Fold:
Amino acid sequence: MVERILKLSKGNTEMPEILILEKEIIHSNNPRYMFLYTYYFPNQNLNDISKAILRTNDKRYINFFFIQIHHIDLDIFFLKILEYDNQTIFYTLYDRKNLDDIFFIKGISRMLENGEDKYLYLIFYYYFLVLNRFHEDIFHLLLKLENTLNEKNYKQYLVNLRHSIREEPRYYDYYSPNKYHGHHGCIPDMIVCHISFDYGKMIKNFYTNTLEVSSHFAISESGDYTQFVSLEDSAWANGTSLNDSSDVYYKFAKNNIVRNRKINANYYTYSIENESIDGSLTKKQYQTTLKLMCEIIDYVEHTYHINFKIDEEHIVGHQDINPLVRTSCPGTKFPLKSLIFDLNKIYKRI
Ligand SMILES: [Zn+2]
Structure:
């Protein structure tokens, strides 16, 4: 079915054929096919399929629907989201951009009822300090957490709150066990940029072998960095699967190179994580990112005797590779274009 959806989405498919596909998918009761159908046919009428996916009660794909499909009835879907846990509500409010205040009001109210946890702290921080928005009702919700706050001290309170849920960075003098040895015969020719909320947590996770995640580098807000995987090896940051039952199926990639390479993208990519919520980098982070990108480019050029291509096909964001599962990595404010521009200047390619 996935191949059929992909194939039909490419050609000038006639309307009747699309409607037959839609009927079959609704009949299948498979929330994943329903999501993929609307993702690849965004201009269809979504009434029937919306009802069908809500009936499945499948948290993962209802969440994907809300975040990624443009013309859905947001109010109806959000009511469903509100039945879920704080983590799901947080990521829904975070991943779907430009939501009106009313969604934050409803979402945060429900999160407060569900109980205090780090996602509740993060959503206040995200709303007031990252999005830099203000609404009287949301401020009143914040007062339920701490009733001594006023308009002068609440920002500092939120900064402290975020600090309180951070992991203290721990340093190791060896590389992470989470990696593949070598590059599986590939010449690595891409750099993938990521963001993550917490530098200390990244270090902890990237050394935890049961989590099976890592990156070549992670950079903190202050511009410090840790290397987890040698440039000779492949990190586990943005893998693609050859199996179409996976949500990181390589043919889902937005990037042409990845979509045409029938091999796990981890083998031919280097990954750099930055500590950030919306993709914006501090000056020091930007400089460290640039320095590490140069280190990677120099290494590839010296080791494989090729010219590393410095362009938007080769220096990319995580969402270009795994768009279904990573809509906010590396975030709307990530300075990908200016990094590519500066690298081209450094290597005198322009
Ligand atoms: Zn990522």
Summary: Residues 179-346 form a domain with the Lysozyme-like fold (CATH 3.40.80.10). The mean pLDDT is 95.
